[in-house]
Amino acid sequence: MKKCVAVLLPIYKNDSLEYFKLSLNSVFSQTFHNYKIFVGVDGEVPYATKTYLQEMDKRGDVEVCWFPKNRGLACVLNDLIAIAHVQGFDYLARMDADDVMLSSRLQKQMSYMESHKDIDVVGGAIEEMDKQSISRGKTIIYPLTHQECVNFFEKRNPLAHPAVLFRYSFFEKLKGAYRADHPKNQDTMLWLDGLMAGCKMANVPDVVLQFRVTNDLFRKRRNGWNLAMRQLADRLEVNRGLKYGVMSYLYAYATFLMQISPAWVKKLCYRYLR
Length: 274
What we know:
The protein is α/β, with parallel strands linked by helices and 274 residues long.
């Protein structure tokens, strides 16, 4: 059977082992079976996590890639992309170490890709869950067609990064991968670089992933003046590169103000404006 989907799953020392096990088990429960999980270990991890990963590495459908130095998500993803490509995988699925795939995710996204040969990356809707893995009753819907994604990017990202499935053609067109010098905004810059390179994107209408939302998300979510300034600069680069209009700049500065606000303000904005 031709190698098909490489699931890219980075983990580092602060990731919860309990959540990571749930994430991994959600991949094992997929209705689509032609996959291999590439776990990228970003630096040193706790003993319990290391022991569990060593056990998982014995499975035929899991390959643990150990990176001794903590370098950040973008660097780990770039290495995993290269490793999977060398092994002949045609598709690359993203996932974070604390999220949960719905059992039909890969099946739905692969079916979409097979019937839309022009699409280079496909995402889907995501459902929020809390720290107990209980649904928060909120689903985030993303635009479906390529042009709708381009229009939506004027305000915010058109794809949920941990819910996407790439065709390898995305990176061939890009002639590269993630920008390693954008550790907190690598997804935004990847969508910009992809669109500038002629990549096509879309989303399936179905929920494909449960995304974990905790209070830590709002306390740590790209906090600080320097990070907010960097993200503002990135958004302005997006606006210039894709020739967006005045509204895109208003959204960029409004987002900047939200990011330098207290955690409770960010929480309200996330709840009612997302």
